[in-house]
Amino acid sequence: CVILDVQATCPDATVTQELLKDGFHRDLLVTAELGAAGEDAGGCAVVARIRLPPGIYVDPYELASLQHHNVTKAVLIPDAVDVEAPEYLAADLLILLYMEPDPRCSRCFRAALPVHGRYHRPADGSEEALVVLKSPQVLLCCCDNRFAKCGKPAEVEAPCSGKNVGPCRWHSLTHKPAHEELILQVPVGLRQHSSLVCVVTLLSTVLCATLILAAVCKYGHF
């Protein structure tokens, strides 16, 4: 594209995030409404920079499938995620979620991302663990550099769109979250049930092994 010496009033953004569905497997819906100056953001790329705590993760294989079908576009950092790790052995994840214009609002953008809760250690008195998601940061990238003087460029290595090969110049918008944080409630086991769970697991294992051995003795060939 042609680079123009264009300056525009720096927009701000009101950010809202919401968790859809129940249980361990949820959809994170992020919406951003740009301020009055957002009318000048036509043709620009808008990204929500989301930091996920250890208690929640994105499945990279699921994300790759969604991107292949043009359902969701995102950059996962790091791109290798241990989906089997429990919360106490996991690390934070950084997601750059590309947002699409909302046809119902000229200055609004939105995107959804499937997220999954991790298993937590058993608790003493509560059947739920709380995972806190901070409000995401909104980044803006325009091909013509119309917002080039809007604060310090964000240190983000990501293309402006799927058509770009190299990274572009991102700018962080003034952040006005509707809520500072979002709470995800993850079901956990109780410590006082540990003995019962061990006994039931052992009995189930012995029973299943006995049934398999009986079937092998009856129908197997030695």
UniProtKB/TrEMBL annotation:
<keyword id="KW-0256">Endoplasmic reticulum</keyword>
<dbReference type="InterPro" id="IPR040039">
    <property type="entry name" value="PIGX"/>
</dbReference>
<comment type="similarity">
    <text>Belongs to the PIGX family.</text>
</comment>
<keyword id="KW-0812">Transmembrane</keyword>
<keyword id="KW-0325">Glycoprotein</keyword>
<keyword id="KW-0337">GPI-anchor biosynthesis</keyword>
<comment type="function">
    <text>Stabilizing subunit of the glycosylphosphatidylinositol-mannosyltransferase I complex which catalyzes the transfer of the first mannose, via an alpha-1,4 bond from a dolichol-phosphate-mannose (Dol-P-Man) to the glucosaminyl acyl phosphatidylinositol (GlcN-(acyl)PI) intermediate to generate alpha-D-Man-(1-&gt;4)-alpha-D-GlcN-(1-&gt;6)-(1-radyl,2-acyl-sn-glycero-3-phospho)-2-acyl-inositol and participates in the sixth step of the glycosylphosphatidylinositol-anchor biosynthesis. Probably acts by stabilizing the mannosyltransferase PIGM.</text>
</comment>
<keyword id="KW-1133">Transmembrane helix</keyword>
<protein>
    <recommendedName>
        <fullName>Phosphatidylinositol-glycan biosynthesis class X protein</fullName>
    </recommendedName>
</protein>
<dbReference type="Pfam" id="PF08320">
    <property type="entry name" value="PIG-X"/>
</dbReference>
<dbReference type="GO" id="GO:0006506">
    <property type="term" value="P:GPI anchor biosynthetic process"/>
</dbReference>
<comment type="pathway">
    <text>Glycolipid biosynthesis; glycosylphosphatidylinositol-anchor biosynthesis.</text>
</comment>
<feature type="transmembrane region" description="Helical">
    <location>
        <begin position="194"/>
        <end position="217"/>
    </location>
</feature>
<dbReference type="GO" id="GO:0005789">
    <property type="term" value="C:endoplasmic reticulum membrane"/>
</dbReference>
<keyword id="KW-0472">Membrane</keyword>
<dbReference type="InterPro" id="IPR013233">
    <property type="entry name" value="PIG-X/PBN1"/>
</dbReference>
